[in-house]
Amino acid sequence: MGGKKIRKRHSGVDSQGNLLHITVHKANDTGAGCRVFKEAVQKYPTLKEVCVDAG
Known about the structure:
The protein is an alpha+beta fold. The chain has one helix and two strands, in the order ββα. Strand 1 (7-13) and strand 2 form a beta hairpin. This is Transposase IS4-like domain-containing protein.
């Protein structure tokens, strides 16, 4: 794509929309979503539920 670096972002927010964790990575990194969740659970061990969106 003409030398452009394509990046994706995965973020974790609480039920009120407050940012818990965010990761920016290469577009072809298929495991980033799982890593964001694992890192968020490490930072916030009381996290009990998760809802994900692929959009």
